[in-house]
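Hi Q.,

Before the meeting this afternoon, I wanted you to have the adenosine-3'-5'-diphosphate prediction in hand. No need to reply - just skim if you have a minute. The sequence and ligand are here:
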Amino acid sequence: EYPNLAAILDRYKEKIAAFPKEKGWMGLDLYMYQGFWYTSQDVFSIETTLAVQETFQAHSTDIYLATQPKSGTTWLKALAFAVVNRKRYNNITLSTHPLLSTNPHKCVPFLETDVAKKTPTYLPENQPRLYATHMPYIALPQSIHDSCCRIVYMCRNPKDVLVSWFHFGKKLSHTLLTQMTLDEMFEVYTKGLMPYGPHWDHVKEYYKASTEDPTRVLFVTYEDMKKDTANKVKQLAEFLGYPFTEEEEANGAVEDIVRLCSFETLKEVNKTGNFRQGVANDTFFREGKVGGWSNELTDEMSQNMDDITTEKFQGLDISI
Ligand code: A3P
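Predicted structure with the ligand bound:
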């Protein structure tokens, strides 16, 4: 599946041996690099991050969709893909639109997985190149920092992210993973011992970058996207340089994209098949709700998380 992966995993063995190491999410060894925790020996890992940093060349027309896992990555991929490619698939009610047959993760590759493939999924003639990543802002390759390409970051309420991680973990059946109770996952999550954690620091960095240069980094929340999807899609399109014309708006193009990328539509499309070995397409579509955490977290857990969020996000205007 990833022909370059073995060589990448091997290449950084010595380097990562010197990084701080702790047990974290699902019992995995996590490595601290530039202030964040990473898994090892996987396609989403410290090794692929280092490989991306070392080899990836950004183009000024590129678009990057950055998230922490379980924050709405799949949704953001679908929305950005549909917006940017809407001329190519201009009648999205036809069943020929790729999102009506293909997992959004196959339409928009991750930098982390692309570096492990033999040939990049996105060829230069498909401008703009649309990529996603879970890498923290600080870890993005220098060529992205140096270019004027656009970055969209989506964050989500950490309590919903934790619950989403928990259910996601239950669906994974990799031998290296140890199942965790919600209590145990709460423990590692609040300590930041998650792939690409700590959650709060990841959010803060992108938030800061968006305030420093709002033309380059757009910061959106899952919650706002849920509340007012049409207006947020318009904002996204404008930011990406693909604003909807008056005619398109009058013809319902925005609503068509909202519907195409809705949880209900995508869940139905992805109810069968596998995204990658051991990960079914439907793993990415569970409830798709805001505030579902209240059915699962205890009052104490909730209070504890609120305290961390208040402290970490002090002075930031983030409504989640
Ligand atoms: P829940 O587990 O709370 O349902 P990611 O894509 O970053 O892995 O995040 C997965 C979360 O996004 C899951 O949350 C999933 O249900 C939700 N999700 C996936 N597609 C969505 C969509 N089209 N609209 C809203 N939420 C979506």
